Predict the structure.
Amino acid sequence: MNNNTEKEKGEALQLYKEVYGEAQSIMRLPGAGSDRRYYRITGSDNHSVIATCGDDPKENLTFYNLAVAFKEWGCAVPVVYAINRDMTVYLQEDLGDVQLLDLLSTGRRIELSARTLKALVDLQTAPDEVWSPYVAWADFSRRLVMWDLNYFKYEFLKPTGIMFDENLLEDDFEALAVALCEGNKLLQGFMYRDFQSRNIMIKEGAPRFIDFQGGRKGPMIYDAVSFLWQAKAGFSAEERKELLQLYAELVAEQRRVEVGEILREVDKFALFRTLQVLGAYGFRGLVEKKSHFIESIPGALANLGELVEKGALSAYPELEKIAVACVSSRFASGGNKDGLTVKVFSFSYKKGYPEDLTGNGGGFMFDCRGMHNPGRYDRYKPLTGLDKEVKDFLEEKGEVQGFIKAALDMVTPVIERYRSRGFNSLQVGFGCTGGRHRSVYCAQDFAEQVSRRFPDVRVELIHREQGFHTLYN
């Protein structure tokens, strides 16, 4: 364990000692999407608390103060007990280990979701004077919308390589920002900002909220949409309609407005939230390679596809064109959940390794650059490894067949083991200098042989630099 972790544990234990006395044990808990670290500290009486350690004092103090204020108002938030002088560690109620996300696959799905939305309305409609003194962030605004939309552009679109006209896209972003910020001020309240089932703990059958330090004044419908359009939650269109109606009726009763007024802007906010989370998934997943976020991309793109079909993007032509490209791209594929998928890539080493979009961490990578390169000869340069002339060149040199056989000998036992153990993803890459000749030939031949040997295995062949995508079996 490194010195920083030991120092952090020491600070958590010191704060606990100041409040409760000596601790009996301390255990680090698994992290989530943020960079905060969590420890469960237990005393001699078996009572436990959670020590949260974060590097941003402003963020920590915001959560602490908001938790105190909302708890006093009777909202479903944890009790906070203490925060240290440096505001880097605070102690809060131990809410257990069960997230709402863990229970959304059970028969209590709708019941718990309904209870969650009711508790959300109680939080959102608390009077401004209860929470506004402690909010650290500016109100929801056009500037915030543009930040999030450009986050989508730079952290999702750019890493995926999906083409777009930046000027036209900015026009659409500005139009969407205006539309989102024209909402009725009566329908504003505390906007949680990241209201999704991973931030909702279930304790004694009731929802309790965490991670609301990013909250601010804004449109309340944003949070209901964030919850119901969360990719991993998997709500159907019918479930969303039912739960949105319930949410709208609860808000209408509190704010004395028509239900239709509350639901009027749902599609716009669903679009905005979907783009915002794709930006986060792009950064945390495609850039930082965190598996949870990579696994969430196909679900978010499925949500985007539904919005395209509903016509929610018709007022934004460049954004609609991009969305269509996104939902038909390889990033929309979540693999074969009912069996094994082997993804085979050809690629250029100059452009980096292929992304692993399954969260599995990658697989085999074979370097084809040791073979004689047909790309060194003018007559082959405009061709690819799919053309007969290039195939003949590689086969006549006598190198390629042995290379592919060796790759198959290595990968075949792994496919057999993955298949028997119920795994659903394996990635194999063939790289060369330009990703045009040697790697394309090898990937193509390898994928075809695997599909013949294993007819029950789904094989996806992706010639990344050529833009070709083929599905076998």
